[in-house]
Design a protein that fits this description.
This protein is mainly alpha-helical and 94 residues long. The protein is 50% helix and 0% strand. The chain is elongated and about 40 Å long. The N and C termini lie far apart (42 Å).
Amino acid sequence: MTLPDERARALVWAGGFLVELARNASLPLRVRQRAVLIARHFPTAGEVMLAATVTESGTGVGLVLGPAEDGRDWMADCPQGPLTMSTRLEWPEE
């Protein structure tokens, strides 16, 4: 069973992974372009942290995320940095 804080951490790490994929020139062009496309619509680390602070509404609808004691530790585990509002991913070309 996944705990709410583990779910939030996975989202932060997945955003960071998209950044890694998009910037890795050794990967095929199609993979890097796909990573950029997905990252455009993926929640940023800040959005994940904000959503994690909102308590469950009791409706049973939506994804329950738990706050990290210190979300910056999660972001430190992203080698190319987490996906943030200021992350600029250039469109990969050959």
